[in-house]
Write a structure and sequence with these properties.
2 domains; two-stranded antiparallel ribbon
Length: about 110
């Protein structure tokens, strides 16, 4: 994984985090197809919004639905009666807040 900062016409690979051109459909490093190729900023998610959803509505999986992890969100919703997703959501919210913006976007966007 590259520690470089992407330029104006670059972005991080959604899989390996390597800096690639925004227009690239496939990462030259890992070969994974980029879902947001050509769409500037369409895949970015707000770290603070995800953290607040995790802290306050984490027991219902709201943060996973927001981040596009629908399957995990449904699992949280199904097991919400156990209060375990509530505790895990609180921990995930704290983790989101401690990540740098670049690291968060690389992992969740």
């Amino acid at each position: 994984m590259s520690n470089a900062t992407p330029g104006a016409d670059e972005q991080f690979c959604s899989s390996c985090g390597e800096v690639i051109k925004k227009e690239a459909e496939i990462c030259t490093e890992c070969g994974v197809r980029q879902s947001s190729a050509g769409a500037s900023g369409s895949g970015s998610k707000d770290k603070t919004s995800a953290a607040l959803l995790a802290i306050f509505l984490g027991g219902l999986g709201a943060h996973h639905f927001y981040l596009g992890n629908t399957g995990r969100g449904i699992i949280y919703l199904v097991f919400s009666w156990t209060f375990i997703p509530l505790l895990v959501g609180l921990i995930e919210g704290i983790i989101y807040l401690t990540k740098s913006e670049d690291e968060f976007q690389r992992q969740y966007a």
